[in-house]
Amino acid sequence: MDRSKQPPPRPTGSGPDAKSTTRTASRSGARSAGSGLCRWLFFCWLLAAAAGLYGQYEPADTLERELEDSLVFIQVAAYPYDDYHPWRHVELQRRSTCGCAVGASLVLTTASSVTDAMFIRTRRFGQNEFINARVLTVDYDSNLCLLELDRQGLTEPLKPLTFSDTYRKGAPIHFYWLSSSGKIQTGQGHLEDHRVMQTALSHTFFLQFIAGNISQASGSAQVFFLDGRPIGIAAAFQQDDKEARIIPAERIAHFLADAADGQYAGFPTFGFDTEDLLDPTFRSFLKMPADRKDGIYVRDVHTLGTASRQLQPGDVLLAVDGVRLDARGRWDHPRYGPIGFPHRISAKTIGEPLDLEIWRSGKSITLQAPAERFDARQMLVPFYQFDRQPEYIVTGGFVFQKLTVPYLKRWGANWEGKVDPHLYHYLKTQAYKPTDQRRDIVILSHVLPADFNQGYHELRYEVVRRVNGRDIATLGDILTAKKLHP
What DSSP line would sit under 256-313, residue for residue? Predict the structure, then answer.
């Protein structure tokens, strides 16, 4: 072999093969380093995941930790009566709700949660055992209830919350509750508005906050916070609108102060109906000056409630306790802005005097009326009758009852359009107008079939005015009238 014609040997570490070898070694080292980095990242992820799994059992923020001794989970067993067949119960109901501490052994919740309650028990954070509770004060008008927990079941006192009357429209808010699993749950939304509106259970009108864009259904009695301070508890949640209605701090403060001495008096409510007074022609008819734009028209006056004895139909209510009302019945609240006049009345204590400026017979006059409350049982058509059996009389198979709103609600959803018109008429026009001559609307509800009442089996929903020649003012008069001709 002629060496002179052979290619010279390539320098070690140079040329195409050397570069290939170098790249291979570099890739191998990169893979090794990348594998180590991946293992390190995977290890960190495992630590983070483990921390997350553990952290779900721990409070997510400082406020949640502070609420551990203030929030309680509540179970209620309720056994309501059947309003159409008042001698029997409907099925036993089991409800779950929540509450918050307002004393060492006192818990605030909604009245709607404890209607017809037979048994109530509670559980606090970090404690598996249930603690029995009893209703200390319940007000179905304001939808508030104060429970007292069995102190022997408390390992340590509850930490009471102090509510703040803070309000800022549009502000972000958070709400908290203790769930059935023993965890503190939270949601969020925005404080959208305030309204003076009728409560869900009663005939009364109260100020309520409206929270919008709620992150999840809040149910009732969850505690709402603004800027880290509790401002109220949930009264209800509107699923379709993603809205929560909040019982504000000032109503809660009024309720707790009234209940403190064990002699609960309740909230005043107005005893008249109004309508907007915007029509200048009608204002002129009432002999009001053309430059006067204030005042709301008093359309009707009841026989129950605040100012029911002082006002007359046709009056114009100009001012309530020193604050002037516009033509829609609103006044300018320093915190909330324009707000309906019922709030001015409900903020008073029972018996506290109110000055009413009215327009009557072409001139302005001032009257004084005490703030008054009436019980639902005083109404001609009661709005509710919780915690007791409905009254009824059965004689000869004829079932006589009082006409009540719960009875009318037996017609189901949208019952207002389904009930017999003559029964609905009494609710709409006479509910707040009992008199000595008629304190109950007594109806022949239905007839239990028997041989001696054949031919009358289809009678039902008839208003009873006289029996055996005697006027019927109350349900008890049925028995009195029966004795006249036994």
Answer: HHHHTTS-------B-EEEE----HHHHHHTT--TT----EEEEEE-SSSBTTTT--T
The two tokens of residue 211 are 């929270």
Nearest to 105, CA basis, from 82, 85, 90, 124:
124
Query: What is the sign of the dihedral through the CA atoms of 223, 227, 231 and 234?
Result: negative
Contact criterion met (CB below 8 Å) for 327 and 282: no
Residues 6+ apart with CB under 8 A from 412: 418
Closest CA to 230 of 207, 209, 257, 199: 209
For residue 141, give the amino acid letter.
D
Average pLDDT, the chain: 87
Other Cβ atoms within 10 Å of 170 Cβ, number: 9
- Collect all residues with Cβ–Cβ distance below 8 Å to 147 and sequence separation of at least 6: 74, 99, 106, 107, 108, 109, 114, 120, 122, 133, 134, 135, 136
Residue 233 pLDDT > 70: yes
DSSP bridge pairs for 399: 394, 446
What is the residue-wise DSSP string for 211-229?
EES-SS---SSPEEEETTE
- Give pTM, 2 decimals: 0.84
Query: What stretch of H or E contains 344?
Result: helix 342-346
Question: DSSP secondary-structure letter at 381?
Answer: S
Give me the percent of the chain exceeding a pLDDT of 90.
Answer: 78
By C-alpha distance, which of 134, 166, 165, 137 is closest to 151? 134
Q: What tokens does 87 get?
A: 């001698």
